[in-house]
Design brief:
Helices cover 40% and strands 18% of the residues. It has 339 residues and is of the alpha/beta class. The strands form 4 sheets. The chain has a 7-stranded parallel β-sheet with strand order 3-2-1-4-5-6-11, sandwiched between helices. It has a 3-stranded mixed β-sheet with strand order 12-9-14. Strands 7-10 form a two-stranded parallel ribbon. Strand 5, helix 6 and strand 6 form a beta-alpha-beta unit. Helix 3 (63-72) packs parallel to helix 5 (94-114) and helix 9 packs across helix 11 (319-332). Bound molecules: nicotinamide-adenine-dinucleotide (NAD) and uridine-diphosphate-N-acetylglucosamine (UD1). Belongs to the NAD(P)-dependent epimerase/dehydratase family.
Length: 339
């Protein structure tokens, strides 16, 4: 049995990945400080799987606790989802972001080294590419200095991982650059439950649909795109979770630094998303045009061919799957996990 410590495993992407890990025959252990997760998610995961998944409450910056976890469990690899991810908040609290994300990853990697665990998968982001010079983005597209502390923590952790892999070349280091994760598990039991008013498009759409918010403001309709709104590569969270399973299968105990884009390769505009979402709910979602949002890139989508060729992974879920599953989750849980 291959045991994987899933830090941040109670969060949005982590919870979906835990399910796909079990489905693929891996044994996950969730390690989360519940800063941005609710305990109910654990019950929901167990309901979906029909069995209990082990969970340890803890912080990735807590070296002593991690020491205990690695001593008491035979851990073959770590997937690190633990991190703070709100762009606006990161501008207001940069030190907290560098501490939680960069220092957290450093403490976690130190514990792994100490316990001779040399398989690490890191949740990176397309944000490391900044404003792209050209699209689609390949893994060789240049990294840019990020326009907010959150994004910069991703760039910094990527460099730290690569440098550690040079120093310890028996390490298998996997950097997965996610494009825009949306959607939810088919059951409608787990999904995205952001704190406060959502910053991201899909949770905003779902909260308008259930009446928690009045209407969507579309940030900018004068961009140089087909309809004037920004283009993104939205990817279903279950496809993303399966990308982690594929990376694990391919890279476990394979020394090196392995970098993959996880996206669909298709860009949709904000208006495409509103149209698709309106189709899922059966009426036109209330929306209006608003000024551009500072820091937005115009167009960002992946060339996912490296993941296809090397991992045998492709995203198969459609835009209709993404909008339907997101809405299904929110409809069943209008106020999220509620604990
Ligand atoms: P999330 O907030 O739902 O999940 C993160 C989890 O980590 C939460 O359960 C939180 O409680 C936990 N956590 C935070 N700090 C911790 C710490 N110090 N110790 C232990 N646990 C801690 O976020 P998500 O959307 O599931 O994202 C997971 C990862 O993927 C993050 O690193 C995020 O930056 C990255 N990512 C997310 C997106 C996205 O759009 N959701 C895009 C690209 C990259
Ligand atoms: C944002 C972050 C990015 C982070 C990612 C995942 C910014 C500038 N970028 O990316 O760093 O990695 O989330 O957490 O915040 N939109 C609206 N109205 C809304 C919300 C969004 O029109 O209420 C538009 C945005 O302008 C954008 C698109 O929808 O064009 C997608 O936005 P979002 O879901 O926030 O993702 P990103 O901008 O790609």
């Amino acid at each position: 049995m291959t045991t994987i410590l899933v830090t941040g495993g109670a969060g949005y992407i982590g919870s979906h990945t835990v399910i796909e890990l079990v489905n693929a025959g891996y044994e996950p252990i969730i390690y989360d400080n519940f800063y941005n997760a609710k305990k109910t998610v654990l019950k929901r995961i167990n309901t979906i799987l029909g069995r209990e998944v082990k969970c340890i409450e803890g912080d990735i910056r807590d070296a002593q606790k991690l020491d205990l976890v690695f001593s008491q469990n035979k851990i073959d690899g770590v997937i690190n989802f633990a991190g703070l991810k709100a762009v606006g908040e990161s501008v207001k609290m940069p030190l907290e972001y560098y501490d939680n994300n960069v220092n957290g990853a450093r403490v976690l990697l130190s514990a792994m080294l100490k316990h001779n665990c040399k398989n690490f998968i890191f949740s990176s982001s397309a944000t490391v590419y900044g404003e792209p010079d050209s699209v689609p983005l390949t893994e060789n597209s240049p990294l840019k200095r990020a326009n907010c502390p959150y994004g910069q923590t991703k760039v910094d952790i990527e460099y730290m991982c690569q440098e550690l892999q040079v120093a310890h070349n028996d390490f298998s280091m996997v950097l997965l650059r996610y494009f825009n994760p949306v959607g939810a598990h088919k059951s409608g039991l787990i999904g995205e439950d952001p704190k406060g008013v959502p910053n991201n498009l899909m949770p905003y759409l779902t909260q308008v649909a259930v009446g928690r918010l009045k209407e969507l403001s579309i940030f900018g309709n004068d961009y140089p795109t087909k309809d004037g709104t920004c283009i993104r590569d939205y990817i279903h969270v279950v496809d993303l979770a399966l990308g982690h399973v594929a990376a694990l299968k391919h890279c476990l105990n394979k020394p090196g630094c392995h970098i993959y884009n996880l996206g669909t390769g298709t860009g949709y505009s904000v208006l495409d998303m509103v149209k698709a979402f309106s189709k899922a709910i059966g009426y036109e979602l209330p929306h209006k045009f608003a000024p551009r949002r500072a820091g937005d890139v115009v167009e960002c989508y992946a060339d996912p061919s490296k993941a296809k060729n090397e991992l045998g992974w492709v995203a198969t879920r459609t835009l209709d799957d993404m909008t339907f599953d997101s809405y299904n989750w929110q409809k069943n849980n209008p106020n999220g996990y509620e604990d």
